[in-house]
UniProtKB/TrEMBL annotation:
Belongs to the radical SAM superfamily. Biotin synthase family. Homodimer. The lineage of its organism: Bacteria, Pseudomonadati, Bacteroidota, Flavobacteriia, Flavobacteriales. This is Biotin synthase. One of its GO terms (biological process) is biotin biosynthetic process. It comes from Gillisia hiemivivida.
Length: 363
C-alpha cells in the first residue's frame, strides 16, 4: 500500500467528522487490508523512575511542582526490572515499555544502568521500549546498540495546543528527539492525549504532525487523559467513547500500517467501547493493573475481554526482527560527548503559573 505523507488538517478533519458508521467502516476496511484484525499487541509499562520530574506538563502526576499523592522512586535496579519483565512475559506481553520521569537523559551511571536493563530484556526475547524524555543522537545510538526495539516520545497535541499545556519545552524539542531516534534502527512510538480541553482542530493538527513524518511512526498511542488530582488538568471532563473511537479510526485511516495503541483511559471504557476501538483499528494495548502511576484494567479482565472477542496477543518481533544487542565494552558510541540541545519557549501558561502559586501557598 502506498502511504500518503502530505495530509492536511482539512482532510483529516473531514475524516474525523464523517458520519460515525462511514468512519468505522472505512477505518475497519483499511485495518483489515494492513493487519490481522484478530491480533492485538500487548505491552507492559514499567515505571523505572517515578515522580520528581522538573517539567510542567499539565496532565502529568509525576511533575514535581504539582502536589499529587503518587509515591516517587529512584531508578529501579536491573534485577528488579528483570523480575518484572519475566512476569510480563508470563502474562502474555510481548513488549516492556520502561518509563522514567526525566526531562532528558543524562549520560552517566543511571543511563548505563538503563542500557543494561535494555540488554537484559532483549535477552528475554521481548521487545524493549523506553520513554525517558529527550535524547541526543548519540544516546539513541547507544540505546539501539543495547537492543532497544522502540522509543516512545509523544507529541501529545497540536503544536498550538502544546503551548497551553507545557511551557518548559517546545514542540520542536519533541520533533528533534523523534528525529534522533529515526537516525537509528529503533522504531518510533509517538502519539498523544485527548481530553485536555483541545479542539477537534488540535486533534487533527496532532495527526497531521504524525502522519506527515516520513516514515510514519511504527506505533501511535492514543491516550484519554487520566485527570489526576493536584495537576492543572484535574477537572477535565471525561473523554466520550465516541471521541475516542473517532480518534482511533482517523489515526488508522491516515497511518494504515502503524500499530495504533489504545493507551491510558481504558479503566473508564466498557468492553463494548474497547471492542469498537479494536474494530476501528486499534491493535495494541498497555496491559497490567498499573500504567505508570495510575490504574489500568487487570490482566485477568483483559484476557476475558480477548476471549470474548476472539482476539490473540501478538508474538514478539512479528513486525521487525529482534535487534542485535552489543555489550557495553564493544560500543562504538561510548563517550562521544555530544551535548544535548533544546530551546526554552519564553511563554508561560496561566494554568501552570496558578499551579505553581498554589504549590507555594500550600507549603
Ligand atoms: N518523561 C518522559 C516524557 O515526557 O516523554 C516519559 C514519560 S511520560 C509520563 C510519557 C507520556 O505519558 C506523556 O507524553 C503523556 O502522553 C502520557 N501521560 C502522562 N500523564 C498522563 C495522563 N494523566 N493521562 C494520559 N496520558 C498521560
Ligand atoms: C503513552 O502514550 N502512554 C503511556 C506510555 N506512553 C508511556 C503512559 C500513560 C501514563 C498515564 C498516567 C500515569 O499512569 O502516570
Ligand atoms: Fe516529566 Fe514526562 Fe511527566 Fe512531563 S510527562 S512531567 S516530562 S514525566
Amino acid at each position: 500500500m502506498t502511504i500518503k505523507h502530505d495530509w492536511t488538517k482539512e482532510e483529516i478533519l473531514e475524516i474525523y467528522n464523517k458520519p460515525f458508521m462511514d468512519l468505522l467502516y472505512e477505518a475497519s476496511s483499511i485495518h483489515r487490508e494492513n493487519h490481522d484484525p484478530n491480533v492485538v499487541q500487548v505491552s507492559t509499562l514499567l515505571s523505572i523512575k517515578t515522580g520528581g520530574c522538573p517539567e510542567d506538563c499539565g496532565y502529568c502526576p509525576q511533575a514535581a511542582r504539582y502536589h499529587t499523592d503518587i509515591e516517587g522512586n529512584d531508578l529501579m535496579s536491573v534485577n528488579q526490572v528483570k523480575a518484572q519483565a519475566l512476569r510480563a512475559k508470563a502474562s502474555g506481553s510481548s513488549r516492556v515499555c520502561m518509563g522514567a520521569a526525566w526531562r532528558n537523559v543524562k549520560d552517566g551511571e543511571e543511563f548505563d544502568s538503563v542500557l543494561e536493563m535494555v540488554r537484559t530484556i532483549n535477552k528475554l526475547d521481548m521487545e524493549v521500549c523506553c520513554t525517558l524524555g529527550m535524547i541526543t543522537e548519540n544516546q539513541a545510538q547507544r540505546l539501539a546498540e543495547a537492543g532497544l526495539y522502540a522509543y516512545n516520545h509523544n507529541l501529545d497535541s497540536s503544536e498550538e495546543y502544546y503551548k497551553e499545556v507545557i511551557s518548559t519545552r517546545g514542540y520542536q524539542d519533541r520533533l528533534d528527539t523523534i528525529g534522533n531516534v529515526r537516525k537509528t534502527n529503533v522504531t518510533v512510538c509517538s502519539g498523544g492525549i485527548i481530553g485536555m480541553g483541545e479542539s477537534n482542530d488540535d486533534r487533527a493538527g496532532m495527526l497531521v504532525a504524525l502522519a506527515t513524518l516520513s516514515p510514519q511512526p511504527e506505533s501511535v498511542p492514543i491516550n484519554a487523559l487520566v485527570p489526576v488530582e493536584g495537576t492543572p488538568l484535574e477537572e477535565q471532563a471525561p473523554v466520550s467513547i465516541w471521541d475516542m473511537v473517532r480518534m482511533v479510526a482517523t489515526t488508522r485511516i491516515v497511518m494504515p500500517e502503524t500499530q495504533v495503541r489504545l493507551s491510558a483511559g481504558r479503566t473508564e471504557m466498557s468492553r463494548e467501547g474497547q471492542a469498537m476501538c479494536f474494530f476501528a483499528g486499534a491493535n495494541s494495548i498497555f496491559a497490567g493493573d498499573k500504567l505508570l502511576t495510575t490504574p489500568n484494567p487487570d490482566v485477568g479482565e483483559d484476557m476475558e475481554m480477548f476471549k470474548a472477542l476472539g482476539l490473540h496477543p501478538q508474538k514478539p518481533f512479528v513486525k521487525k526482527s529482534k535487534p542485535e544487542s552489543v555489550e557495553a565494552t564493544e560500543s562504538k558510541f561510548l563517550n562521544l560527548g555530544e551535548k544535548p540541545k533544546w530551546s526554552r519557549p519564553s511563554h508561560k501558561i496561566e494554568r501552570n503559573l496558578e499551579a505553581q502559586k498554589k504549590s507555594k501557598t500550600s507549603l
